[in-house]
Please model this.
Amino acid sequence: MNTIPSPTPSLADRFLLTGRVAIVTGASGQLGTAISTGLAQLGASLALVDVDTEGANQLLRALPVEEGQRHRVFEADLTSKSAVRTLASQVEGSFGHVNILVNNAGIGVFTPSEERTEDEFRSVFEINLGGTFHCIDAFRELLSAHGGSVINIASVYGIVSPDPRVYGDSGRNSSEIYGATKAGVVQMSRYFAVHLAPRGIRVNSVSPGGVFANQAKSFVDAYESRTPMARMARADDIAGAVAYLASDASSYVTGHNLVVDGGFSAW
Ligand SMILES: NC(=O)c1ccc[n+]([C@@H]2O[C@H](COP(=O)([O-])OP(=O)(O)OC[C@H]3O[C@@H](n4cnc5c(N)ncnc54)[C@H](O)[C@@H]3O)[C@@H](O)[C@H]2O)c1
Model:
C-alpha cells in the first residue's frame, strides 16, 4: 500500500520559528528580554526595538545565533508616527520581510488618580495605545506579504481593577489610565484581527498578571495570597504564551486575549 506523506508538519515543528523575522518593541525591558530570548531560541531572527539602545545591545549579545539567524537593534520612540514609519523602512531594508510583531513596549504610572497630571495621562496613552497602533499601521504591509502574527501585550488590569488590599500604602497601586489603555489594547487587537484577517495577518493579545521583579516582600506576599496559583508570574511564563501565538501552532487563533495570570482574574 502506498503511503502518502502528510503535508502537515508535526506539531513540534509548528512551534518552530526558523526563517521568521520578529520585531519586539520594548525589547530591553523585563518582558521584552524574555520574549526576545524565547523567540530567538525557537529560531527567529529578531529586530530589537527600544529607546534604550544600551539595554537592547546588551540583550543582542546574549541572544542565541544559529545558522541563518541574525539579530539587530533599532532605536525608535514609538509615540512618534513618523519615527515608526522610519523604523519600518529600516527593518525592511535590513531583513527584507517581517512575520511577527510583538507590541510589548508600555509604561504605567502609580500616583493616585486624584493627583493625575495631564502629562502622565498623555504619556501612558501615547505609548500603550499610540505606540501599538503606530506599529500595526506601519508594519501591516510588510506583515501581509508572508502571512503575519501580531501579539499585543495588554495586562490583567485591562480586565479587572487592581485590588487596593494587595497594594496597601506601598505607593505601587496600578492606575486608572494604565488599565484603561490595556483594555483598549485588547479591543484594538480584536478590531485588527477582524480587519487584517483578509490579508493573512492574525492579531491577538496577551494579558500578563504581575511579574516578579524583586518587589517588596509585603507586596509579593499580598499578591501571592490573592492568586490561585500562589505565585507571581515569571517573565518566561509570558514568553511561552507569546511564542505560541507567534507560531503556526496557533494558526487558527485570532482576536483572542490570552490571560496569563495564574488565575488572578478567575475569581
Ligand atoms: N511587568 C509586569 O508585571 C507586567 C504585567 C502586565 C503587563 N505588563 C506589560 O508588559 C509590557 C512590558 O513590561 P515590562 O515590565 O517588561 O516593562 P519594562 O519597563 O521593563 O520595559 C518596557 C520597555 O519599553 C521601553 N519603552 C518605553 N517607552 C518607549 C517608547 N516610547 N518607545 C520605545 N520603547 C519604549 C522601555 O525603554 C523599556 O525597555 C508592558 O506593556 C507592560 O504594561 C507588564
User: Anything to note?
Assistant: Residues 27 and 33 are 5 Å apart (CA to CA). The chain has one domain: 13-260.
